[in-house]
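Comment thread on ticket #2218

A.B. wrote:
> Attaching the input chain for the structure job we discussed in standup.
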Amino acid sequence: MELKILIRNHKSQLAGDRRIVEYLREHPKFRLRVPNAWYAMKNTRGWDGYKRFISEGGLFDTGLLHEVLECLSEKGGVRLTLSDKRRLSEEPGELVTELGGLVGRGYQIEAVKSVIEHTVGGLVFQRGVLHEATNAGKNLIAAMLYASLGEAPKGLFLINNKVIFNQAVVELTELLGSDTVGWCSSEKGVNWKNFNVCMVQTLSNRIKSDRKVKQAVEQCEMLLVDEADEVIGYKNTKHIFSTAWDAPVRVALTGSADTAKNKIKNKEVIAFFGPIIHTTTNKDLVEQGFSARPFIKIHTGNTHVSESTYTREYELGIMKNKKRNKKVWKRVAYHLSKGRHRILILYRYHKHLKYLWKTMPQEISEKYRVVGVHGAHKTRENTLRDFKEGKVDILISSMIIKRGKNLPLMQVLINAAAGDSHTTIKQILGRGMRRKAGIKTKIYMDDFFDTGQFLKRHAKHRVIYYKKEGFPVKELYKKNP
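C.D. wrote:
> Ran it. Output below, let me know if you need it in another format.
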């Protein structure tokens, strides 16, 4: 059996024996069940509920090339020819390990090398996923990678968080220079240079309304995307991707690679960027002295709560549960007694803030500055800044805190929100792990093991997620049921 693969930057084409194409189309790696597909199947005649990542004509996203080659190798008996039709940089460049007076850490240099030296099927393949935990220094990695790619490639750095965007503009400008770094955002406008930091939604809108911006994006040679696991499914992201379709260098920077429950979402990240080629974990950063060491305790949560629906069970077992909310404040009081005065309490839904506020002990409200915040608060950025700077003792926050907020003074994190997401667990664990020299080398985290048809299952999963991060977990609920 003979097969030829025509490789381009965005899409590649299988050409040859039809039996091989069908084999790959139906392979479990390229045929994934769509979540809740049975709803759509009722109204879609002839659809079997699966998404296939290889078309009937043999087209597939080039990021999947490594998996295609792996499957063909497993099958055997295929005479394979690779035809590389990509537009690639003619200048290979040299590895840059120091910028703006900063020398890259060992793992940062290895992350950059993993992109520069990456090959698939013997071909240069400067793309992939950099799985870098919070506090890994993604901006320095991005800057070193850009500087290592040869003479001034046209680059885009896509970001979907205003705080992260502002930090990236400042830090990348310091590292690469104001003549190199530009930006595109609703607040700062457009200042186009060779390497541009862009808010996803704003850039998508500009592509539609500004011909010059569209042409600049079409000429993109290097595409970096922060927290790609979050933005991969957005229409605005896909619009930018389709405009920068010929970019040869594609890198996803994320602390939560391949942890989403939606397997299709995980596959879409790989399809556009390529495989995970470098990983730096929270545990790595702790062991190397760059992050604070977490101490995690799981306490007994609610008791005897069981409802027919998850929504009702969460309402009665988490939000309105007085005993559980009082346990949250009991943990706060314990940490305060130990001299830990920078405490973050996380909740999920706005109503929960009201019930936590009602159960707060008077001695805490009188002695310490306690502030609540969620996404609808107009002063949320000021409140978060005050907490970051140590002007607030106890912050009760919704999940707006989970991305882009480094809190070096925070000493305690209390997860009152429950939940069942490995990605969220990694994000909230990373919020307070930034180490503050001479002030903080440890971070304390409290969570709760709840009862109920749904809540107990979620609690079990969270314990597993914490352990997967490689840190010791004290399961106190087993001793105090």
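A.B. wrote:
> Thanks. Noting for the ticket: The radius of gyration is 24 Å.
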